[in-house]
Write a structure and sequence with these properties.
By secondary structure, the chain is α+β, with helices and mostly antiparallel strands. The protein has one domain. Helices cover about 30% and strands about 10% of the residues. Strands 2-1-6 form a 3-stranded mixed sheet. Strands 4-3-5 form a 3-stranded antiparallel sheet, covered by helices on one side. Helix 1 crosses helix 4. The longest helix is centred in the N-terminal third of the chain and has 16 residues. The chain starts with a strand and ends in a 34-residue tail after the last strand.
Length: about 150
């Protein structure tokens, strides 16, 4: 099983695009629409890849939330977002990110090109251990026969 790791500095949009690009490359699909279609048609090669990839809950939520942007991605010829870290707007690029923000006037940001997530052997964003998670109080230990008070239920 392999996890997909993205850069820690990526915005939510960048994480979704990065994971999507990695999935497209691993499944050998050119666009997100192609991947959805292959999944709907139960393509065995695609199913085999998905059996080997583990996505975090956050990655799944971001993929779901960013569907309109994922529909713009393409592997060949490459079409990926370059996202401005200042204003968070993006432009689609094929080669390199622009040297300055091209969307927001006078924005000082320098966009970065979103790269495909890389494989990791462990969960890149581990969930909190169960013992650290809030939950109901542990149940009391059951009473033994000698501790049981019959009068309490009379």
């Amino acid at each position: 099983m392999v996890w997909l790791k993205t850069k820690d500095t990526y915005s939510d949009t960048a994480v979704a695009a990065s994971v999507a690009i990695a999935l497209l490359k691993r499944t050998k699909q050119n666009t997100w629409t192609d991947l959805v279609r292959a999944t709907d048609e139960a393509d065995l090669a695609v199913a085999k890849v998905f059996k080997t990839v583990e996505l975090t809950d956050r990655q799944l939520e971001l993929l779901n939330a960013q569907q309109p942007i994922l529909g713009l991605l393409q592997i060949s010829p490459a079409v990926v977002p370059a996202i401005c870290p200042q204003c968070t707007h993006f432009v689609l690029v094929s080669d390199v990110a622009p040297t300055r923000c091209m969307v927001t006037p006078d924005c000082p940001g320098k966009p970065y090109k979103v790269l495909a997530a890389v494989g990791a052997k462990e969960n890149p964003t581990p969930e909190a251990p169960l013992e650290d998670m809030p939950g109901p109080a542990p149940a009391e230990t059951p009473l033994t026969a000698s501790e049981f008070d019959d009068d309490a239920f009379a």
